[in-house]
Structures are given as structure tokens and as C-alpha cells.
Amino acid sequence: xxxxxxxxxxxxxxxxxxxxxDLPLETISDILTRxxxxxxxxxxxxxxxxxxxxxxxxFVRLQLSRSNYQRTRFIIQPTIQGFANDxxxxxxxxxxxxxxxxxxxxxxxxxxxxxxxxxxxxFIIPYFKLNPMVIYNPMTRQRLILPSLDCEVNVRPGEVxxxxxxxxxxxxxxxxxxxxxxxxxxxxxxWILSVGESSWRKLSPPPLCLIHWTWYGSESVFWKGVLYWxxxxxxxxxxxxxxxxxxxxxxxxxQIISFPxxxxxxxxxDLLDLDGRLTLVAHEPDAIMKLWRLAxxxxxxxxxxxxxxxxxxxxWNKNLFCQVISRVNHNGYLLFVVLxxxxxxxxxxxxxxxxxxxxxxxxxxxxxxxxGIHGFRPSLECPVSASHLS
Length: 390
Hints:
Elements: H1 25-32, H2 37-43, H3 48-55, H4 57-66, E1 73-80, E2 83-84, E3 89-93, E4 98-102, H5 106-109, E5 112-118, E6 121-126, E7 134-137, E8 142-145, E9 160-168, E10 173-181, E11 188-194, E12 201-203, E13 209-211, E14 221-223, E15 226-234, E16 240-248, E17 253-258, E18 268-274, E19 277-283, E20 288-295, E21 303-311, E22 320-328, E23 332-341, E24 344-353, E25 358-361, E26 371-376, H6 383-386
Antiparallel strand pairs: 1-2, 1-3, 1-26, 3-4, 5-6, 6-7, 7-8, 9-10, 10-11, 11-12, 13-15, 14-15, 15-16, 16-17, 18-19, 19-20, 20-21, 22-23, 23-24, 24-25
């Protein structure tokens, strides 16, 4: 429902011109929220009433609720050997094969990377420091710098670990989880911040664990009020147990979900929200790709069930591996492919259609040989407004 102060008809200069249909703002709101974000931003310059309408919090929430029905877009960040080498962000529409540059302030990306996203907002952190941390909407170019995490000790570069960013459904607040390693393996420290508050709170850590952090980062996955990471559970028998680390943003508690079968370090694992379901993808060295779906209604009851097995016809290894980043046309997958050769790293994006045993390379102009990629669904969410919620 549109805010009461905007509940009226719309016209230009107070009158309805020839050929112009005078519609209630509720009807216009229903129409506009179904459009791509770029079209909504263009509509803002049509007239003042549409400008006010599209900035109204109720309109923003309605558009966000419908964003899941729009196709996934991708943010691309050029890199050198896994680290950002310039200050550009590119927006990719893989289905339309369209790519364009997103204007962004230089200081936002200086020495930093996109770690994860939630509701169209990107979470950007430095490579080797805890601060500064930025929430950024690449479509509206609005940003919020979070309060610094001031620890009781100095943190060295190798001790900074991945992060998580999600939305607490019970409070309507965004929350950030940070981890750093202090004192060796098993000495993980966890902190949490509710966006809008001025200070961080220390969390009770999960059982001995170390979040798996590959060269392209260990993105958290936000799904239905819970953050998930791939992780390695350390024990005292001399071997590691692979699993999922889950953090309920409402209860602020950790849980470890074990994988349904053991995997060696020769198997590459992806964790992502695929078609609205949390999915684990295992790329096995014998060219087999398995999709495991998370079953269960709440944290504590979750388990993984095998859903699909495909022959990829490629023997993936440590020097040639891929990551599933999205579904394509209901019968294919979008892959982020990484090739390591002679000390250099090259990346590209390709479509894989299992039933046809076909790969289709995406030619991406404006992009160097190496880049990072992050899937997200654009929204009008304002980071600053999120910090002012009561």
C-alpha cells in the first residue's frame, strides 16, 4: 500500500493532458514495481509525483518483494591474481548478453572487494583490514559506511576472515557478521552489528571451525533469515570434516550442517541460492556435477538431499575449475570458470546445458582476463534508510 500522503491521482501540472490517463497512484505503483530497476529510475524524472512515489518506503518494499521474480544480474569486479586492480564495477545481464559500467566513487573500491550481497545491496570490505566496511546499492549509488570494529587487539592481514551480511526477518534490520582469526587455528572471534546501531557485539563462537576461504573469497549465502558458509570443522583425529556453517540472524546462534558424503580436496564445492532453494554443487574430479538441495523447515532440522547428477564432460582440477553462479533458462547453468596457468589466472563466464552436452562462452567486452563475479537482484533499498529504522 502506498503511503497515505501519496494516495491520490496523478497528472501533469495538476491537469490531465490530452491522451494521458489519470490513474490512482496505487495502480501506478503496482505497475512500476514490476519494471526493471533501470526503468523505474527513468520514471523518476517523468514528474514530481512519480519521483515521490518511487522513493516512498512502501514502494521500495513492494519492489523488493517482487525482485525475486526478476532475473539475476551480475556485478563484475576486474582483478589481478584475485585482487582488484582498478575502480570499476560492471553490470552483466547474462540472458540479454548486455554489459555496462556502473559509476562508483573511487574510495569505495580502494583496496576492497565485494564480499556478499543481500536484497540488492553489496557488502564491500578491505582485503587485509577490518575497516572500513561499506553497504552499497550499485543501482542508486547510495552507500553507508558502518561503524568501525575496534577489537581489543591489533589484527594482522592474515588474520582477517570472511564476513556475512543478511536481513533479520524478525526485527526488519540488516545485520553484519565479522570473523577474524587470532592466535592460530581454532581461535576464531565473531562479532555482529545491527545496521543502525553504533557498536558491535561479540558472539559466542561455533565449535572449532575455519570458514573455507579460496582465492576468490568465501561468500556467505543469505537464505530465509540465515547466513551460510562453506566451512571445515577441525577435530583432533588429524582430519577435517567438511560442512556448512549456519547462523540464524534472529536467534544469533551458530549450527554446523554436515555434508551427506565426504569429499576430498580434489572436489570443488559451490554454495548458492538456486531457484529460491539453498543448493550445494559438488564438482567431482571424474567430471560429475552433483546438486544437493537443503531440506527442512528450520535451522536444526536441515539436511542435504541429492537432486541432480550431471556429466559435465570436463575433468575439473585445481588448475581448471568452475563455480555455478545461476540457472539459465530452466535447463542450463551459468558457470564462472577459472584457469590457472604459468602463474597467472584467467577467468570467463560460460553457459552449460547438461541435456545437450553443450557449453556456450559469453564474450564480455570491457573486461580484463581476470575478474570476480557476484550474482544479485537489483533493488531500490537505501542503505542509509535501513540504518534509521527504529
